[in-house]
Design goal:
- By secondary structure, the protein is an all-alpha fold.
- The protein has one domain.
- It is built from 13 helices and no strands.
- The N and C termini lie far apart (94 Å).
Amino acid sequence: MPIMPDAAPSPPPPTPPPPRWTQDAALALVFLTRLPVPSIGPLANPLAGPLADGASARAMGWFPLVGALVGLAGGAVFAAAAALHLPPLAGALLALAATVRLTGGLHEDGAADVADGFGGGRDVARKLEIMRDSRVGSYGVLALVFSVGIRAAALAALPVPAAVAALVAAGALSRCGLAAMARVLAPARRDGLAAAQGKPAMTTVLLAPAFGIAIAAAALGGLALPVLAFPSLAATLLAVAAVTALARTQIGGHTGDVFGAAQQVAEATVLLTLSALLGTTA
């Protein structure tokens, strides 16, 4: 009786793709920071394979969580500066420098480009051309000075626990309206990251502020003032709405730089709001 050869071993089953939310969250981290994507736990290698359809747009729903992480890092630096008895303004500037280091100055760069383009362009084509120029003009420099100065002054006016809470809340809330902007405005260019990102679904538009206000309420809850999350959310939505209206008038849509400008205006607005409200409750 002939001996049958052993059957070839069956190939191992394919590795199941990671849950969709892990890819969306990892993309948000990649978009907004220079932090590496986690390689352990539920977020292990979420970007190793091809992106799921609509992942870039859905990632905007997770922006507030990434913003809270950035704000927490800035708050830790502010607290460390206070522990070293540095002046409050110096601590505030160091805290903002830490957030810029984490984000690579992404939002500040966008705000400077928008200021240069909107301030110096004669028509839409010229405005978009200026915004793409890597050089920074006088409007851009002034935008950076005012952005950093206003945020640092608002932080320096707060005691350490309030400043840390404000940075976390502002980091989350200032990024929670960007999905709505992407849905309301069409891309101003046919190319570029903003155009490739796509229009987020309404669930993403609603998820972002839900995350934002939950994070802000938790951060401010440490001061026994979670209710301040609501006027802070209103402030950020008004700020984003103002930048949205301006972008529609100036260039007829959004770009990545417009998102950066909206974040900067919203963060400054939230920090000013919290500085004023926490000052009245002190």
